[in-house]
Specification:
This protein has 21 helices and no strands. It is an all-alpha fold. The chain is globular.
Length: 432
């Protein structure tokens, strides 16, 4: 522990000293990690524990929850949708606390609330209490923890923002790879409620480490030399962003992946049933998802730092659309692994791009409140992904047919964002 404290304090001193230097050498990845250890690790841990509120984790218990509470696919999807919609509405204002309070304090509070929600899931016997638990899991897990992590990194890094976002958001991918298989192994000998109890304990144990790692802000630096990526020179306020036509033109395409990925993860056991795939096959697919996501993030970070997130923001819809077609039309179990790999590629680029596009476009001073608008929209979209698709399944409209429509939506979204990104680049060149 003494060595860890010394290493982190040294990284703080050297990184802040580097921020005042006019010459910036080209650091290798290892040196970048070494110099920025504490901030990267802190944001990574926040992203990791956000997994407890993500759909991929909650859906692992969907059959147990529906059986225990005697709910249909549509009923559970409706409860999940309402809980997520309510969390999006609250998050719209709650997200701005990152602009007003230290990151370390906000992180400790959010982890405490998430732990309480997990603990309640372990003992709940009421449908109403289930809805409250889902609301808290979505608000503090899916919403706030990732928001705090990416807002801090977006504000504390400049020249290497893309690489920093890519590395720290891999915490969520680590959770996607580890948690499903751990839960599957645990449920072989224990009831599903024990998993939620362990999740609650883990979140509590993470509070001291995350608080200490995030309590010292990092001073951002701008790369010197020719500027290749476009970036605004002023800080927009949230009311200004809400009046920006380009923000609303991009929103339907930006929110599409949340709808699609959440629907696939939430209904994956239903899909496995109608395809007659082996039990546990989709859980193994999360490993492919995580590996592909990590690989795409490693590729996306340097590309974003070189070209800017705005130029790349349309690209990731195409692999997502192909993955929908594979799941809709494929019959072999191998289509799970192909599709999950493509979803991972799309999610990796999406997480890296939209962790950096908002500070590029609107600045960093009000980043927390601006991101809260975007994240609320994403959470709203994910809520619709479970509720609408579950209602359609109950109405007799097959999930495979829905996936074909989702593939078409991805093609439209790619074209829409390609057009909007060009308008954004022209505005930055004209105004800044």
């Amino acid at each position: 522990m003494v060595f860890l404290l010394s290493a982190c304090n040294e990284s703080t001193r050297r990184s802040n000293a580097r921020s005042t230097s006019k010459a910036r050498p080209e650091f290798a990845l290892f040196n970048f990690l070494k110099l920025n250890f504490r901030w990267l690790l802190g944001a990574f841990l926040l992203a990791l524990f956000s997994g407890f509120g993500q759909t991929f984790f909650i859906s692992l218990f969907s059959e147990d929850i529906r059986s225990h509470y005697e709910l249909t696919d549509g009923q559970f999807g409706a409860i999940y949708m309402v809980a997520t919609l309510c969390s999006a509405a609250i998050f719209l204002n709650l997200g701005s606390v990152v602009d007003r309070f230290p990151v370390a304090i906000v992180s400790a509070f959010v982890l405490s609330a998430l732990s309480a929600a997990c603990a309640t899931m372990a003992v709940s016997n009421s449908v109403w209490l289930l809805a409250v638990c889902l609301f808290c899991l979505r608000l503090f897990g899916q919403g706030m923890l990732l928001h705090v992590s990416q807002t801090a990194i977006g504000r504390w890094f400049d020249a290497d923002r893309g690489r920093a976002i890519s590395l720290t958001s891999m915490g969520l991918n680590a959770g996607e790879s580890i948690f499903p298989n751990v839960v599957w192994a645990m449920t072989l000998s224990l009831t599903w409620r024990y998993s939620w109890g362990i999740a609650a304990t883990s979140a509590v144990m993470a509070i001291p480490a995350c608080y200490w790692l995030m309590k010292v802000p990092r001073t951002p630096t701008r790369q010197e030399g020719p500027e290749t990526k476009p970036q605004t020179t002023r800080n927009w306020t949230r009311p200004e962003v809400l009046r920006d036509v380009l923000f609303w033109l991009a929103s339907p395409a930006v929110f599409a992946p949340a709808f699609i990925a959440t629907a696939i993860f939430f209904h994956h056991k239903h899909l496995v049933g109608i395809k007659a795939w082996p039990a546990g096959s989709f859980a193994s697919g999360f490993i492919f998802l995580s590996v592909a996501t990590v690989a795409s993030k490693l590729a996306a970070g340097p590309l974003i730092d070189r070209f800017g997130a705005i130029r790349l923001m349309w690209t990731y819809h195409l692999p997502l659309g192909v993955s929908c077609l594979f799941l809709a039309l494929g019959q072999s179990v191998w289509f799970i692994y192909l599709s999950m790999s493509l979803i991972g590629i799309a999610m990796g680029f999406a997480a890296s791009i939209f962790g950096t596009v908002w500070p590029e476009l609107y600045g960093t001073k009000h980043l927390g409140s601006i991101r809260s608008v975007a994240v609320s929209g994403i959470v709203f979209s994910s809520a619709c992904g479970t509720g609408v698709t579950g209602w359609l399944i109950d109405a007799g409209f097959g999930f495979e047919s829905q996936l074909v429509f989702m593939a078409a939506w991805c093609v439209y979204s790619a074209g829409s964002l390609f057009f909007v990104s060009g308008r954004m680049l022209r505005r930055l060149k004209t105004v800044d």
